[in-house]
Structure formats: C-alpha cells, structure tokens
Amino acid sequence: MNIDLENKSFVIFGLNDSGKSTLANYILARFAGCAFVYDIMNEYRDEPYDRYVPTNRNNLAEFERVLRKVMTSRRYRLILIDEANR
Fold first, then answer.
1. What is the pLDDT of residues 1-22, one digit of tens each?
2. Are the CB atoms for 62 and 22 separated by under 8 Å?
3. Which of 1, 40, 60, 69 is buried deepest, with most CB atoms within 10 A?
C-alpha cells in the first residue's frame, strides 16, 4: 500500500503497545534527512533524521521556541512530536 503523506497533517494515536512508535519509525525512515522529531521521552536516535530532546518536557516555552525555529527553517518535510498526550 502506498500512502501519499505530502502536504498532510495527521495524528497517530492508540493504546500503549499498539504499534504507534513502530509506525512513526516506518514513516520517519521514508523521509530520512528531511524529518525532525521532538523526542519528549528520548526514544529515538539521530539517524537518519534530526531530533531534539527537551530539557523539561513540561516547558511549553521550550517547545514553542524549538518548533518555531524548525518550522521557519523550512528544511523539514516531516515534523514528528512524540508523546503529545499532555
């Protein structure tokens, strides 16, 4: 199955251990160097995409600062925010 994700916004949600991170990693691999992960739980690795692990996962100012910088760079075709349930 081929799913066109260009110019789309989407959310992956589900119960614990339902495969959300596996699906996210699959999608990240397809975007490789054009992907960015805001990695709240420090679960991802730097390759083949860029990531940021916040110093305080409850700090909205830090989240906004990083995302604003990432979005204005226009470098990335995919931005993943993991563990956004809070």
1. 677 767 777 778 888 888 888 8
2. no
3. 40
